[in-house]
Amino acid sequence: MPDAVLDRAAPAEAGGNMLAVRGLQAWYGESHVLHGIDIDVNQGEVVTLLGRNGAGKTTTLRSIMGLVPKRAGSIRFEGKETINLRSDLVARAGIALCPEERGIFASLDVTENLMLPPVVRPGGLDLPTIYQLFPNLKERANSPGTKLSGGEQQMLAIARILRTGARLLMLDEPTEGLAPVIVQQIGRTIREIKARGFTVLLVEQNFRFAQTVADRHYVVEHGKVVDMVPNDQLASSMDRLHEYLGV
Amino acid sequence: MDDIFGIPAPLLFGQLLLGLINGAFYAMLSLGLAVIFGLLNIINFTHGAQFMMGAFVAWMLLNWLGIGYWWALLLSPLIVGAIGVVLERLLISHLYKLDHLYGLLLTFGLALIIEGLFRNYFGSSGLAYRIPEALSDSWDLGFMFLPVYRGWVVVAAAVMCLGTWLVIEKTRLGAYLRAATENAALVQAFGVNVPRMVTLTYGAGVALAAFAGVLAAPIYSVNPQMGSNLIIVVFAVVVIGGMGSIMGAVLTGFLLGVIEGLTKVFWPEASATVVFVIMVIVLLVRPAGLFGRA
């Protein structure tokens, strides 16, 4: 059926291809974690990676960022091959990661955490805009980073990479363990940054949340992409997804 | 004002000053060790040899090139720091993923080699380095005479320690350093060239040791063992203060210097061991050190 093939291709109206991952493999020591990941992310899209625990979603983000030492395949960002780049050079190319463990530094205060990532390109959000999006960060500017609540830490972790001018933001389970009202705020934030032209690659377990923000969903299983579902076909694909995710 | 606790005041103040001066060197050296350990996870046993090299380079600049003390204070740390950068790139950088023990063995071996080379060339009797003329006076403080140079050492060391602390705690570069000490991989993923920062940090720590070496040259005789005599005490200071704590290293350095000086007055026989006794007590009561995070 030709439709199924089209489904896998990125929708044409969403802007040019920003990230093309082909046959990405990755290893942690001896264990082979990714077995050939293929994903495309277009300019201005919000794309999620769905999948069970241990499927390889986080490893995919970390491999794109250059944080997994042993990796193979192809990662093209804005047409440039980055598979062999060191992580600081990947960052300089315009990709930023908000890691699953949030990575807030205990020995830095909130402002220092926020200002830590160097600006890699023009076009990032300025401080007034960031404080407008995350008013709590302004109030707690001088607190040590890890004295914030879980939700505030997550806000800080996202805010931090909005400043840098990176165009592709990779968010690893930003809603994990947070109260519903905070999850809603993060949802609003993601829609807001999409409206400002950022591109987002999101790892999520919470697929009810994912469908409120994303354009497309890739399903990852055993280190491979096994399906791609556009958000508007999510309802009709529910049975399939339940099977993949075991929810 | 003649006797304090039955001790003649000049003796008491004299030892207190000596303690402060030793403390200044402990502080500068343990500061460098703490900075290096924090980011590189390497216990830099070459630190004493690098302190000694700082003094020798000052001596060479003066006797071979006619370059005086003030320029040496700048040039010697740069030269010895540059040698440190080369060492880090060629040797030390290969050990970061291994156990501490390997770094310790490598840097200890390097210290022995460097000291051996200097002993072979310069002998072990020591060379004199004259106090710069501007600082060769003494001040009469009423209760004692203070040689200006000794006062200068304490002030210079304190300013250097404070400056280093300010850079680490209050600047952007320092924020990178503190963050990379916690999670270097993430800092690099933000676009910071962490390997280069690590190399330069080692160079800076070594330069700090060399700076202390130049300060020491006119006080102690410039000899190949001057570092190894000092470094054992400095390691005790670092253990007492807590590995990786900047302010802890500085305060503990000055404090232990003073305690050592006072012990010389009240119980001279114990003065060589008092630091180690304190180390044992601190390790028993607070294994992470006085200022360390457990």
Give a description of the structure:
The complex is a heterodimer of chains A (247) and B (294). With 247 residues, chain A is α/β, with parallel strands linked by helices. Chain A contains 10 helices and 10 strands. In chain A, a hairpin with a 2-residue loop joins strand 9 (216-221) and strand 10. Chain A is globular. Chain A starts with a helix and ends with a helix. Mean pLDDT of chain A is 89; it is low at 1-14. The model of chain B has no long low-confidence stretch (mean pLDDT 90). Chain B is globular and about 65 Å long. Chain B has helices spanning 9-40, 47-65, 69-90, 100-122, 148-170, 172-189, 194-216, 226-241, 246-266, 274-285, and strands at 3-4, 7-8, 138-140, 145-147. Chain B is built from 10 helices and 4 strands. Helices cover 71% and strands 3% of the residues of chain B. Chain B has 294 residues and is mainly alpha-helical. Chain B has one domain (3-158, 193-285).
Could you list some keywords that capture this structure?
heterodimer, A: 247 residues, alpha/beta, Rossmann fold, 6-stranded mixed sheet, 10 helices, 10 strands, B: 294 residues, mainly alpha, cell membrane (chain B), transport (chain B), membrane (chain B)
Topology:
The complex is a heterodimer of chains A (247) and B (294).
Chain A: H1 2-8, E1 17-28, E2 31-42, E3 46-50, H2 57-64, E4 70-77, E5 80-81, H3 87-93, E6 95-98, H4 110-115, H5 127-133, H6 135-139, H7 150-162, E7 168-172, H8 180-195, E8 199-204, H9 207-213, E9 216-221, E10 224-230, H10 238-245
Parallel strand pairs in A: 3-8, 3-9, 6-7, 7-8
Antiparallel strand pairs in A: 1-2, 1-4, 4-5, 9-10
Chain B: E1 3-4, E2 7-8, H1 9-40, H2 47-65, H3 69-90, H4 100-122, E3 138-140, E4 145-147, H5 148-170, H6 172-189, H7 194-216, H8 226-241, H9 246-266, H10 274-285
Antiparallel strand pairs in B: 1-2, 3-4
Multimeric state of these chains? heterodimer
Kindly name the structural category of chain B: mainly alpha
Unreliably modeled segments of chain A? 1-14
The CATH class of chain A, by name, is: Alpha Beta
Helix content of chain B: over 70%
Radius of gyration of chain B: 19 Å
Give a short account of the largest sheet of chain A: 6 strands, mixed
**Approximate helicity band of chain A:** 25-40%
Membrane topology (chain B): Multi-pass membrane protein
GO molecular function (chain B): transmembrane transporter activity
Subcellular location (chain B): Cell membrane
Transmembrane segments (chain B): 12-35, 42-62, 68-87, 99-118, 149-168, 200-220, 232-259, 265-285
